[in-house]
Amino acid sequence: MNRSDHRLAGDRTGVWLVGARGNVATMSIVGARAIAAGKTDTTGMVTKREPVSSLDLPPIEGLVFGGHDIDPESLVTQAELQCDRNDVPDETTLAAVRDDLAAIDDRIEVGTAVNCGAAVTEESERIDDSLAIRDVIEQIRDDYETFRNHHGIDRLVVVNVASTEPEPTEPERYDDRDGLERAIDENDRELPASVLYAYAAIDSGHPFVNFTPSTANAVGGIRDLAATESVPHMGRDAKTGETLVKSALAPMFAGRNLQVLSWEGHNILGNKDGLVLEDDANAAGKLASKGDVLDSILPEIGHNRVRIDYTPSLADWKTAWDYIHFEGFLETEMTMQFTWEGSDSALAAPLVLDLVRLIAHADRYGDGGLQPQLASFFKAPIGVDDHDFSRQLDLLYDYARQDR
Amino acid sequence: MNRSDHRLAGDRTGVWLVGARGNVATMSIVGARAIAAGKTDTTGMVTKREPVSSLDLPPIEGLVFGGHDIDPESLVTQAELQCDRNDVPDETTLAAVRDDLAAIDDRIEVGTAVNCGAAVTEESERIDDSLAIRDVIEQIRDDYETFRNHHGIDRLVVVNVASTEPEPTEPERYDDRDGLERAIDENDRELPASVLYAYAAIDSGHPFVNFTPSTANAVGGIRDLAATESVPHMGRDAKTGETLVKSALAPMFAGRNLQVLSWEGHNILGNKDGLVLEDDANAAGKLASKGDVLDSILPEIGHNRVRIDYTPSLADWKTAWDYIHFEGFLETEMTMQFTWEGSDSALAAPLVLDLVRLIAHADRYGDGGLQPQLASFFKAPIGVDDHDFSRQLDLLYDYARQDR
Amino acid sequence: MNRSDHRLAGDRTGVWLVGARGNVATMSIVGARAIAAGKTDTTGMVTKREPVSSLDLPPIEGLVFGGHDIDPESLVTQAELQCDRNDVPDETTLAAVRDDLAAIDDRIEVGTAVNCGAAVTEESERIDDSLAIRDVIEQIRDDYETFRNHHGIDRLVVVNVASTEPEPTEPERYDDRDGLERAIDENDRELPASVLYAYAAIDSGHPFVNFTPSTANAVGGIRDLAATESVPHMGRDAKTGETLVKSALAPMFAGRNLQVLSWEGHNILGNKDGLVLEDDANAAGKLASKGDVLDSILPEIGHNRVRIDYTPSLADWKTAWDYIHFEGFLETEMTMQFTWEGSDSALAAPLVLDLVRLIAHADRYGDGGLQPQLASFFKAPIGVDDHDFSRQLDLLYDYARQDR
Amino acid sequence: MNRSDHRLAGDRTGVWLVGARGNVATMSIVGARAIAAGKTDTTGMVTKREPVSSLDLPPIEGLVFGGHDIDPESLVTQAELQCDRNDVPDETTLAAVRDDLAAIDDRIEVGTAVNCGAAVTEESERIDDSLAIRDVIEQIRDDYETFRNHHGIDRLVVVNVASTEPEPTEPERYDDRDGLERAIDENDRELPASVLYAYAAIDSGHPFVNFTPSTANAVGGIRDLAATESVPHMGRDAKTGETLVKSALAPMFAGRNLQVLSWEGHNILGNKDGLVLEDDANAAGKLASKGDVLDSILPEIGHNRVRIDYTPSLADWKTAWDYIHFEGFLETEMTMQFTWEGSDSALAAPLVLDLVRLIAHADRYGDGGLQPQLASFFKAPIGVDDHDFSRQLDLLYDYARQDR
Ligand SMILES: NC(=O)c1ccc[n+]([C@@H]2O[C@H](COP(=O)([O-])OP(=O)(O)OC[C@H]3O[C@@H](n4cnc5c(N)ncnc54)[C@H](O)[C@@H]3O)[C@@H](O)[C@H]2O)c1
Ligand SMILES: NC(=O)c1ccc[n+]([C@@H]2O[C@H](COP(=O)([O-])OP(=O)(O)OC[C@H]3O[C@@H](n4cnc5c(N)ncnc54)[C@H](O)[C@@H]3O)[C@@H](O)[C@H]2O)c1
Ligand SMILES: NC(=O)c1ccc[n+]([C@@H]2O[C@H](COP(=O)([O-])OP(=O)(O)OC[C@H]3O[C@@H](n4cnc5c(N)ncnc54)[C@H](O)[C@@H]3O)[C@@H](O)[C@H]2O)c1
Ligand SMILES: NC(=O)c1ccc[n+]([C@@H]2O[C@H](COP(=O)([O-])OP(=O)(O)OC[C@H]3O[C@@H](n4cnc5c(N)ncnc54)[C@H](O)[C@@H]3O)[C@@H](O)[C@H]2O)c1
Ligand code: NA
Ligand code: NA
Question: Which contiguous run of DSSP H or E holds residue D100?
Answer without folding.
Answer: helix D91-105
